[in-house]
Amino acid sequence: MVEMRLRVAMICTGNICRSPMAEVVLQNFVDADSSLRGFVNVTSAGTANWHVGTPMDPRARGALDRAGFGGAGSLGAYADRAYLDRQDVVIGMTREHVHEVKKRLTNPSTEVILMRNLTEPGRDLDLFDPYYGDDSEFDECLEMVRAGGQCLTLEFRQRLGGGSPAV
Fold first, then answer.
1. Known catalytic residue at 85
2. Beta strand 111-114 with 89-92: parallel, antiparallel or unpaired?
3. Which end of the chain has less neighbouring CB within 10 Å, N or C?
């Protein structure tokens, strides 16, 4: 039997707010589920290369800490063609991110999903950027990311042959 592994990328613009929060949240959910742990690899990157090599925004880290999510997340990375082509699933935070990913992507088997379509299918709603906001906006963004991460966890469990959560 061949073990299936999923490479998942969370994508936003600068890779310092939404996508690193989404990476940390999803990785926490994966690590807490023995049917997914070791089978799902989560990273994040940005469609712009402004913050390559830098850690996430401290306000994003603060929101994760307040919500009890550990893990540093990746340093800022750029979602170039090679990075995207290595992924099995790419989650874009906005329609623009999804559009940019699809323009760069050459791997036809990579699935591209808009984050809020996970919780509100077919509505094609963007996840707002909390960058110019305060802590409450980062917390609100994180709650949307958490809901999307829960949907992804269920989906990945089904894809990898698991059923209910295993601890």
1. no
2. parallel
3. N
